[in-house]
Amino acid sequence: MTDRRIPLSALEQGTPFAARHIGPDARDRAKMLAQVGFGSLDDLTAAAVPESIRTTEALRLPEARDEAGVLAELRGLAARNTVLRSMIGLGYHGTFTPPVILRNVLENPAWYTAYTPYQPEISQGRLEALLNFQTVVSDLTGLPTAGASLLDEATAAAEAMALSRRVGKVKEGVFLVDADCLPQTVAVVRTRAEPTGVEVMVADLSGGIPDEAAERGVFGVLVQYPGASGAVRDLRGLVDRAHDLGAVVTVAADLLALTLLTSPGELGADIAVGTSQRFGVPMGFGGPHAGYMAVRDSFARSLPGRLVGVSRDADGAPAYRLALQTREQHIRREKATSNICTAQVLLAVMAGMYAVYHGPDGLAAIARRTHRYAALLAAGLREAGVEVVHDAFFDTVTARVPGRAAEVVAAARAAGVNLWQADADHVGVTCDETTGRGDLAAVWSAFGAARDASDLDALDARTPDALPEGLLRHDAYLTHPVFHRHRSETAMLRYLRRLADRDYALDRGMIPLGSCTMKLNATVEMEPVTWPEFAELHPFAPADQAEGYLSMIRELEERLAEITGYDRVSLQPNAGSQGELAGLLAVRAHHRATGQPGRNVCLIPSSAHGTNAASAVMAGMRVVVVATGENGDVDADDLRAKIEKHADELAVLMVTYPSTHGVFEEDIAGICAAVHDAGGQVYVDGANLNALVGLARPGRFGADVSHLNLHKTFCIPHGGGGPGVGPVAVRSHLAPYLPGHPLQPTAGPAGGGIGPVAAAPWGSAGILPISWAYLRLMGAEGLRRATQVAVLGANYIAKRLEAHYPVLYTGPGGLVAHECIIDVRPLTRATGVSIDDVAKRLIDYGFHAPTMSFPVAGTLMIEPTESENLAELDRFCDAMIAIRAEIDRVGSGEWPKDDNPLANAPHTTAQLSGEWPHPYTRQQAVFPTGTREERDGKYWPPVRRIDGAFGDRNLVCSCPPVAEHADHAG
To answer: Which positions, given as ranges, span the membrane (predicted)?
Structure first.
């Protein structure tokens, strides 16, 4: 009898997670290697990756664990966090996420695996959701144009400062900040102001603008409404005086308070900024949360970040798109006024849907309840003899307890409530949507004002509200039907499903975007994000209540440092653009510390990401562009000439590796050495780190600093255009200049470093469990294998397509890195078929287009990632080959240049069911491959090709009248 037993040790191991994450199995990899011409992944690596940069030692990472084991470890970390009732406030509030939104947005891959909606025809669902968000912000702030989210409140305020300087009448002078602004906002504004030469003056503006400021000139004013202390002040006089001085006025406003208080627009503000966190988005130890900005009409075309607008499609039907994209840093580069790239789309969708679900009456009811608790809290304190500082407030009560603040805070903490110690004499207490009667009793007791919660109703009967009569809101808001139709969960569920069905995300198929690394966001990595121990912690909670978080953060920083070869990592930057800025500010600070303040030139290859140049300008540097050679490499002769020319003023070279052209440059080590010899630093943009992990380490082949994209290489999902995390990694000499934070000294280097670049000490900490879990699941060998398969996939696609489209750049042996660029320009010249036509036709084949016209106009940059299996790679290649055959039919004259499947793509069901005047069949239009799989899994775009120019000329950035949709119904 044959013994079929398998050893228990083998059975206990199960399937390694790396085999789940990496799409092609061993058999598929063998086929792909044969196509590319290599016998093994190691042979391919040896040929593709320059020997001068290859690492020879394995990464020192913990051994990979299975999914159950990693979840158990995370449970252990979560258990070390202590979640008390948070009444700290300061811009972060307890909130109740409606389960229908939690399950069907935050936990739904249809929403969290989508990409930035640059292909609007397949992004109509999330674009509509963002238009809802913009409408909420615009209506509540009383300003006509709102953006589709910014990174957080503090960075939004910093963007408002830059906008004020750009569009205002006063070009010099100071930026005046009220002392009652959130402290983290003031700190971020200072960080952003210093390198651009802006002086920030912080003053108590309750009595008006100080004479000193008026005499020096004021280009902008920032005031909090309500203030950080809770005070609600009538800002009209301050606004009028600021306008008399020619200043632009920004009001940082609480959206929930604005359901009851007069809007900033009505008070005369030019700009409103803030956060939408308390609209159903968990605190998450600081993020991610969607910041917002709204502006008056005259500033609309200068608004930083993304803006969703209403345009029309080829049939004239209303359709949504990102408007005014020529404002973006990728196009404007060193002339850009903002480096914002990643937004907070997923969180903006949640906040917008929170407003859709509750409607204006529901939001106002939540606000009234929140305020009522605050009013009763203050009344109970006063009756017990505790001094309450302000008579008018919304949700925050500041109490004066001379010399007793620490004692009160400690007593409240012992009762399970966190309060804010403003100083030795003042305690702040903030109520929110989750506040209950027991919380008031605990707080009263902590102040020594013990009273039974049972008499709360009697206290309620004799206590007036604390909102000033002259500031009560009387105008209507959120009047669009979308905010009134979805009161029931059934209606809301169906609305969310309908919008999700209008989009294309990774849960449908491959998104082969070059530079953007749209890889698997595993469910096991996502699951811990919504655990209360991670989701409900306030970022300014005492450090001993966040032991699990801090251990996880420290471990993630150490593992990222090991992977990249650097010495220190800061996780604070909450987007790749902010990581760039932090890295460049560290370089700037280093040069100043070594007595070389004149080093301000930043060399940037012409092919670089647009954010590189924008970040350099924001860091106070002068951009000098280095030419790119015909092979896609940095032009070594031009680089050396510019190093020599600017030797005494060279601050840094910013270079992407592998290059933006998708090639491993042979001379990267020599380039780094040449810059160092001239006294400069080397910044390696980490956007393409998916080609390096486990194979090469930037900190070891000559780089001094990099930012990393956790939303690319390390599996945090793109969320439809955010959230992102962009840690900055540095060698030891730059470590003293990493970001710090005034409210959490342990979050940065001793001395505070360069100051904070984000509102929260550890940025978007709430999503860091994703990357921690990815590294723990993969281990050193799994990460190396993933990188090798990513490089294999790109070379496989290049080999399959090279007979049909020229591959624009290759390295030694005709190999590419983890992405390849195919050139459509010769076909366009010969046939008139444009890059847009190819991109839109891919929709009919069931694909999101690759990256278009970046870094070279008229090309497609393709990145398959390691997560896509061979069947999906082949499906994509087959589609591209079929499209080439269609292009040839246009070129031969068989199909007219203005009436063919490419020119008319994408095709909708409405088009299919109407008259058919075209020279190709309906089946050729919508089922081009003719396979059953295509028919069964068909994605139907909801609109035809969108007229972008029309939308830019006719800017509509909030929910359009229902009649516009009714006219085109069906």
So the answer is: none
